[in-house]
Structures are given as structure tokens and as C-alpha cells.
Amino acid sequence: MILAVVWTSSAKNTARQNKALAPGNRLFKLDARSLHCAVRSHEVNAAHKLTEKRRHTQDAFFYGFIFLLRKFYYDSCGFVIRVTGAVLKLRRKNLFDVLLILLLAFAASATEASGCDLDLPVNQSEGIAQVKISGVIDGDTVRLQNNKLVRFIGINTPEIDHEHGRSAPLAETAREFLQTLIDRQQGSILMQYDREAEDRHGRQLAHVFTMEGQNIQALLIARGLGVWITVPPNLQYLDCYRQQEQKARQQRLGVWAAQFEAPHDTALLTRRDRGFVWLRGKVTRIGHGKKFVWLNFGKGNGKGEAVAVQVHKDDLHYFSDPTFATLKNKTVTIKGWLFPYKKQLVMRLRHPASLEVLD
Q1: Spatial separation of the C-alpha atoms in residues 213 and 215, rounded to whole Å
Q2: Does CATH place domain 264-357 in 2.40.50.140?
Q3: pLDDT given at position 303
Q4: What is the pLDDT of residues 276-288, one digit of tens each?
Q5: Cis peptide before 233 (omega within 30 of 0)
Q6: Do the beta carbons of residue 189 and residue 216 sit within 8 Å?
Q7: Cα–Cα distances in angstroms (integers) from residue 44 to residues 15, 101, 215, in the given order
Q8: What is the 3-state secondary structure (H, E, C) of the chain?
Q9: Can the peptide bond before residue 121 be classed as cis, meaning omega within 30 degrees of 0?
Q10: Cα dist. 181→61, 119, 136, 310 in Å?
Q11: Domain 124-251 and domain 264-357 have a common topology
Q12: CA 40 to CA 146: how far, in whole Å?
């Protein structure tokens, strides 16, 4: 009965609530396709101030409910955006509907943890350290107070063009989401190394967590704000990240409704196509060299660039069939970085998790 009062408030109260949630003042920016969690933390904190101001029974319950969702905004941003939008439409529905929405919200928070999160408290033997962040470079890279860069393992977020300002779609959204998350942690996060602690650029490689133990890579991937990648030998949370991406793809969230809505056809790629790409094509030839196994793709109508995927022999032990003979004439998708080499476009394949056979 108490909750029902919220949804049967007078027209005057409803108008006042709508004004508080109007564009420019609203607490949540609704964008179901791209999961554009562009809300600033100070806007969310405004909910608490509104709650303190409104002591009348009906308004207090309404704003109290929004204040209750503050935790879910930070921990389950994508889900709460949808749930909140649904709840606001239920002002005149019955109590059962309201309770159902509440139950779904709590269930989402409970299940989102998956198998990626840490069991707290942690001990030093697990190789987990608390670090301070001085800056967020983009959605998958941060700078520590000691000026070292940390590249997140298992994820690639849309690139930010710091020089020319031509960033990829959702690049700023991913960075802002990470910035808000770190601000909530007062600049502290937990960092866990895998088997390889540094990349060829001198950046530290790590799985990162909130102080509550939530895996930050998993939070980004689940919202479609980053793509799961597999770079051996850092494979500790491979299955977890894979599961989070499958959910995002099924729901067409973030990048899966934008630049990765469909894989790029290898027959249509040009010399200007480079960087991180999800490609699709038919393997027409398999070659074996001294250092690499080569998967060659047909040029289709002959107007596109020749495309080849290379697998270094040091990585062959990850594959069940190191000859790749079964892939001949198969259509596959592969995620990785594309670069021009001699007279063709080349992508390196490091692990079978980045390869999907379609037929």
C-alpha cells in the first residue's frame, strides 16, 4: 500500500516529478541501443538532495526510490536505465507491477557479478594490490599516481583520438563511465596481474576491480562499451569476459548496435581500413611458412584488398588443429587489429577464442 501511493499521486505532484526528470535535470539519460550512460555523478547525487527537500509523504517515497537506485546506477548502469524508464511509466499501475520491477532490479544487481569478481577480503599472496589513479586515458587505459600506464587485460574500448578529436563512437562514453566509476572509488582501485605483466609499449597489464571487488572490464563489456579480446598468455578471466560479451551482443548494446552491428566483409575492405576490426570472410587458402600459418581470404569481386590472417607458430599450441585444414572454404569471423603489410591487409590471430566458424 505504501508503494502504491507513489504511483497514484496527484496531477500536480506528477508534473513536479516530470519537471525534475526533464532534459537537463533528469537523473538518467535513456538510450537503450547504445547504453549511453552519460550521466554525471553530481546529477545522481542531486536525487539525494531532492529527497532531503521533499518531506511530504508522496514525494518522499518517489525521490526515495530514485535515491535507492543510486547504487544500481553505478553498479548496473545499463539495466537501471531501462528499469527506471519502465518504473516511471507505472505511476498508475498496481502494486504487483511495481514490486515486480523492484524484484528485477535487485535480481540484476545480484546476478551481474558473474564469475569475474573478487572474493573480499583479498590477501597479498593473490597478487592483488590497491593503487591510486591520477587520470583516465580512455575506457581501457589509466594512469597511476607514479605516472605508469595500466592497460586493462581482456578488453578493447573504442579509440579516443586525442590529437584530432575524431574519436570512435562511444569512445567518450566508455571513458566517462570509467571516470565516474573511479571517482566513486575516490581514485582507488584494485589491480591484479596475469602471467604477462607488461606489454611491448611498456604499459602494465592488469585485471582491475572496484574496492568492492567488481571486475571493471566485465562491467564495461556487459554494457557494450568495450569488446572482449584474448591475448595470450593473459587468459585468467577469459570465460567470464566471453559470457559478458555474449550478453551484450544478444541485447545489441553499445558497440554491438554501432560499429560492430555486423562484421566487416573481407571482400569490401580497403587500404584505409585499419585498427581494431571484426571481420567476416571465407578462407580460400591456407599457407605454412617458417614463422606463421596464413589464412587467406578471397577478394570477392576483385575490387577489395587481399586479406590474410597470420598465426605465429608460438601460438599454435592453443589451437586444437594447428594445421587449420578444417577451415578451408569455411566462413569465419575474427576480431583483431588490422594493418597493411606489403600488398595486403593483415591481422594476427593469437587464440581460438577470437575465431568463430559460421559454417
Answers
A1: 6
A2: yes
A3: 60
A4: 999 999 999 999 9
A5: yes
A6: yes
A7: 20, 20, 22
A8: CHHHHHHCCCHHHHHHHHHHCCCCCCCCCCCCCCCCCCCCHHHHHHHHHHHHHCCCHHHHHHHHHHHHCHHHHHHCHHHHHHHHHHHHCCCCCCHHHHHHHHHHHHHHHHHCCCCCCCCCCCCHHHCEEEEEEEEEEECCEEEECCCCEEEECCEECCCCCCCCCCCCCCHHHHHHHHHHHHHHCCCEEEEECCCCCECCCCCEEEEEECCCCCEHHHHHHHCCCCEECCCCCCCCCHHHHHHHHHHHHHHCCHHHHCCCCCCEEHHHCCCCCCEEEEEEEEEEEEEECCCEEEEEECCCCCCCCCEEEEEEHHHHHHCCCCCCHHHCCCEEEEEEEEEEECCEEEEECCCHHHEEECC
A9: yes
A10: 27, 19, 11, 37
A11: yes
A12: 27
Note the pLDDT tens digit of each residue in 233-247: 999 999 999 999 999
Note the pTM of the prediction, 2 decimals.
Answer: 0.70
Cα–Cα nearest to 68, from 43, 40, 44, 96? 44
- The model's pLDDT over 177-232, given as tens digits with 9 standing for 90+, comes to 999 999 999 999 999 999 999 999 999 999 999 999 999 999 999 999 999 999 99
Domain residue spans of the chain: 2-111, 124-251, 264-357
**Closest to 141 in 3D by CA, of 128, 160, 124, 126:** 160
pLDDT for position 89: 41
Distance in angstroms (rounded) separating the CA atoms of residues 78 and 333: 27
Residue 34 in this model has a pLDDT that exceeds 60 = no
The whole-angstrom separation of Cα 287 and Cα 247 is 35
Q: Cell numbers for 213, please give them.
A: 571487488
Bridge-based pairing of strands 141-144 and 204-209 is unpaired
What pLDDT sits at residue 121?
Answer: 80
User: What is the rounded distance in angstroms from the CA atom of residue 277 to the CA atom of residue 326?
Assistant: 24
Beta strands 344-348; 307-312: pairing state: parallel
Whether 1 has a pLDDT exceeding 90, the answer reads no
- How long is the chain? 359
The CATH T-level fold of domain 124-251 is OB fold (Dihydrolipoamide Acetyltransferase, E2P) (2.40.50)
